């Protein structure tokens, strides 16, 4: 069997396509801090329209997109944000909203479907009468799809309800939409309708969309004007970013249509994995491109030994714990790569002979 490279660590690992590189090579550029980079303006205009918001801003990363959004909404010291205890902002962004923004986090438990119970969100909102003791709640953050729940989609009805709750209490609503296009395709709901109730969204260009770098935040003109200042303060104002925006424009055109295939390949991988003794995956729980695989307790293998063995076959996975592995499918993973991966796993876990033909 011919060894091949199959990188399932994340959808952040994709390499620019030839079409992206060609667009980058001929990109017309200017100084974006001075507001003149033509492809940045084109990308921001296109993304604002796609997301149904007044304006957009290119930022270097999804982490910075979330940080800027929270800092704009919570621009008064002593502000508090309600967010999921298993959300990316709370778990993987170095507590930046606190360490840099002085914003206090009030977590609500994320349910298995990535949502937070709406009654618990409302209960977490501080009573203004207690202002002598309490921070002031100013923002609710959701995440769609929800990565740590396995790429679960938050439905538009739920987002609308949280939006109504935010309005009722004069709060803002932000969505970490790193994979919002995955949610849109999986749910069959347009992105602009999915985020209609929000005040801001951070959209990753460099995940499922496959661009090499960047995210875009969208919101009102006033929100984006403030966001541009915070971006500059954080050192995120860059110069000839048309080179990056050129690739992003290709990514949006070429790769949004491929997300459905990513989801199919993830479901194929999950259903095949689930048939292997000692491994546990719930194929029904795979809604988009992320799979969490559990190694059963009495299994003779561990997550570490499986990852190590597969690495020898060119397959890269993300080990989450001694018994848990994450696999993320993207547009540079084919059905044949999935079958190759399954073949290698079967050989290691069950001792099946490696089938040729891959
Ligand atoms: C849900 C989610 N939000 C935000 C981010 C941050 O994006 P970046 O890695 O570009 O900072 C990631 C992962 O990278 C993510 O999975
Ligand atoms: C690990 C995390 O930061 C990244 N967003 C990923 O999903 O790979």
UniProtKB/TrEMBL annotation:
Please tell me which top-level EC class this enzyme sits in: lyase
Which cofactors does the annotated protein need, by name?
pyridoxal 5'-phosphate
What do the Gene Ontology cellular component annotations say?
A: cytosol
Q: Does the keyword Lyase apply?
A: yes
Question: Which reactions is this enzyme annotated as catalysing?
Answer: L-threonine = acetaldehyde + glycine; L-allo-threonine = acetaldehyde + glycine
Q: Which InterPro entries match?
A: ArAA_b-elim_lyase/Thr_aldolase (IPR001597), Low_specificity_L-TA-like (IPR023603), PyrdxlP-dep_Trfase (IPR015424), PyrdxlP-dep_Trfase_major (IPR015421), PyrdxlP-dep_Trfase_small (IPR015422)
What is the gene name? LOC111466135
The answer to whether keyword Lyase applies is yes
Q: In which pathway does it act?
A: Amino-acid degradation; L-threonine degradation via aldolase pathway; acetaldehyde and glycine from L-threonine: step 1/1
Its biological purpose is as follows: Threonine aldolase involved in threonine degradation to glycine. May play a role in the removal of L-allo-threonine.
Which terms under GO biological process does the entry name?
Answer: glycine biosynthetic process; L-threonine catabolic process
Give EC number(s), comma-separated.
4.1.2.48
Q: Which Gene3D superfamilies match?
A: Aspartate Aminotransferase, domain 1, Type I PLP-dependent aspartate aminotransferase-like (Major domain)
What range(s) does the Aromatic amino acid beta-eliminating lyase/threonine aldolase domain occupy? 7-294
SUPFAM superfamilies registered for this protein in UniProt: PLP-dependent transferases
Instruction: Mark the residues carrying the PTM N6-(pyridoxal phosphate)lysine.
Output: 207
**Full protein name:** low-specificity L-threonine aldolase
Q: Which family does the record assign?
A: Belongs to the threonine aldolase family.
- Record keywords: Lyase, Pyridoxal phosphate
- Which GO MF term does the entry hold, naming one? L-allo-threonine aldolase activity
